[in-house]
Amino acid sequence: MAPTTREATKKARSPPLGPGSTAAQNRPRKKAKKARKAEEAKHAPVEISSTRCQLLELPPELRNRIYHFCDDNRYMGIFRKIKTGKEKPGHKQTGAFVALAQVCKQIRFEYRPLWLRQLRIRVDFSDLEEFLQVFYCVLDRHEDWYRDAPTILTIAWDHDENDYGDGDTLISIESLLKLHAYSPASTIEFECRRLAESDLPCTDCWECGLCVHCVRGPFSIDCNFSSDVYDSHYTCEHDETIGEIVSVLAAEYEYLAALNTFLNNNNAAWLKHVQEKCLDYDSINCTMGKDCGQATIYIRFREPEAPKHLRTRNMHRGASAYLTEMGMADLEGWQELDYVVGVRTDKYSRSIDGVPEPVYDQALIRDLKSKTRSSSAQAVKQAPDSAVQG
Q1: DSSP reduced 3-state for 345
Q2: pTM to 2 decimals?
Q3: Which of 85, 146, 312, 328 gives 20 to 30 Å between its CA and that of 278?
Q4: 203 phi/psi in degrees, rounded to 5
């Protein structure tokens, strides 16, 4: 009878096995053969196939044209440092084309500066120092790194939740000034974090009586709001109450507008002075906060590097002349800023903690366009640990 299946056909065509021969007897030979091939492959030289990158084979002009289209014009939320090990894993929104800036050394060298310059980024004030160190290496790199300043650098500031918002603690702003001095087209500004994130304080709505903060969530531990009372279908929009809160916050943070104008001063003499003399400054700091209601700029020099205007006995007149030459009197909202300009002396005084602090011969300028003397005295004040190291 003829075989009716493929397997039966194979058996019919194969030669008959000898006496005592079985299929199981052939298995050790197959295993030994496979083991020998695996051993040979193990000691054989590895052949690495070179992957071609067609982007790098293009002429530089075409690559620059491609980089030109990789422009991320989004203005995302506040960029914060990710604390590993504490947050739940999840998707984090990042800027577009950041992966392209890390492909290889050549693309990183060509595209990363372009990517940094087109950034529009918000950074929380607590992360500002580390952000500048990571992306701009302001502590130990060449001045060319400052030329890659982002298009817009916005610093989220909250004087209620910040150790530097008491109006008395000095904040170093040298790095921000150098970024703008080498990239005058960039915009560096502080903004109210609460307004940027719509993080309104706990306030009862005038119409429905519910807390406008906790209705949006998350619930505040300082509020008596109960989620059981809230009806998700309640139609109150709290418009009037929210509008009043926003107006109050805008008034509290109004001092930031004058500070932003100072940070973006495009006076040619000032930009040149920051580029050439910033490292000779003893300190460029500011103080600001809710209690003082305005920002005060501290510009103080070591005696050998002090400009000619400050090498005089009348420190107030010299400081006013220096600030006028640097274009401070031409800034919009200049009357909202106070300036402390002075020169470090060779004297020291001990603080409450017993730490020696230098004495400055300095003048407080409250009105640049006034010829009356505001104040001039030797001051004992030294910047503590700054938030932004320059």
Answers
A1: strand
A2: 0.72
A3: 312
A4: -145, 135
Instruction: Spell out where 66-209 has E strands.
Output: 78-79, 120-124, 152-157, 171-172, 187-192
Is residue 48, in this structure, part of any structural domain at all? no
- CA 298/CA 338 separation, integer angstroms: 9
Domain-located, residue 127 = yes
Range of the domain at 170: 67-81+96-197+252-380
Our count of domains for the chain comes to 1
Confidence of residue 88 (pLDDT cuts 50, 70, 90): low
Contacts of 244 (CB under 8 A, 6+ apart): none
Closest CA to 168 of 339, 383, 388: 383
Using the CB atoms, write b or e for 307-337: b if 16+ within 10 Å.
Answer: bebbeeeebbebbbbbbeebbbeebeebebb
**Per residue in 93-127, pLDDT tens?**
556 677 788 788 888 888 888 888 888 888 999 88
- What's the DSSP call for residue 48? P
Among residues 320, 307, 327, 331, which one has the least CA distance to residue 369? 320
